[in-house]
Specification:
About 15% of the residues lie in helices and about 30% in strands. With about 200 residues, it is an alpha+beta fold. It has a single domain (about 5-195), classed as Sulfite Oxidase, Chain A, domain 2. Pfam families: Oxidored_molyb.
Length: about 200
């Protein structure tokens, strides 16, 4: 008997999608689920800021207006959540992480980055992944300000990794010279989290 996942995968072709876009163990959804631990922060105007620090020569902090004034990039990308939903062709806009790191003059010995969000949520990502064209600090989804429940005003977007690596309500990117587990990684999730290799849990 064919289960939900098989049927969902079979429907991809009918919808005109290449089946290879859906990583193993995932299903495609049109919904945009909301997933996080804890409360959704609310910011008064001017309250939110983003700091780039750690192993950098020139740490700095940006206000939302300053971030929005930087050259913007729009990408259309597929997103994969470790809870098995995938969503295709999501359109996001923001600033390339690489550009922020260039401005901060990151040290040669920096190898990893810890993304810090409001209320202490963290996610570790190798520096190389954040230097990619499609790694962004985003403030728009589908042409609108990102809703608070989806991480507004600003979240990290690392589309090639499971979505837990994209902290909502991002406040700080800390350059480090070693990998260290973030929030979910301390709770048994994979240190890297490649959806196409199904790196869900630490032993995968
Ligand atoms: N600050 C923060 N960011 C977070 C999380 C969280 O709990 N707190 N959850 C992560 C997880 S597990 C997922 S799947 C995505 C969900 O994003 P969404 O609610 O916009 O779909 O956010 C990620 N970023
Ligand atoms: Mo998740």
């Amino acid at each position: 008997m064919m289960g939900f996942f098989d049927r969902n995968r079979d429907e991809l072709a009918a919808k005109g999608f290449d089946e290879s876009r859906l990583p193993p163990g995932q299903y495609l959804t049109d919904r945009f689920p909301v997933l996080h631990v804890g409360d959704v922060p609310t910011y008064k105007p001017g309250e939110w800021s983003l700091t780039i620090d750690g192993l950098v020569d020139e740490p700095f902090t940006l206000s939302l207006d300053e971030l929005r004034a930087l050259p913007a990039t729009e990408i259309k990308t597929d997103i994969h959540c470790v809870t098995k939903w995938s969503k295709f062709d999501m359109v996001w806009a923001g600033v390339r992480v690489r550009d922020l790191f260039e401005r901060a003059k990151i040290s040669n010995n920096a190898t990893h980055v810890m993304g810090h969000a409001e209320y202490g949520y963290t996610a570790n990502v190798p520096l190389a992944d954040l230097m990619r064209d499609d790694s962004l600090v985003v403030y728009q989804y589908e042409g609108e300000d990102i809703e608070p429940i989806h991480g507004g005003p600003v979240r990290l977007l690392v589309p090639q990794l499971y979505f837990w690596k994209s902290p909502k309500w991002l406040r700080r990117l800390e350059l480090c010279d070693a990998d260290a587990p973030g929030f979910w990684e301390q709770n048994g999730y994979h240190m890297y989290g490649d959806p196409f290799l199904e790196q869900r849990f630490s032993e995968d």
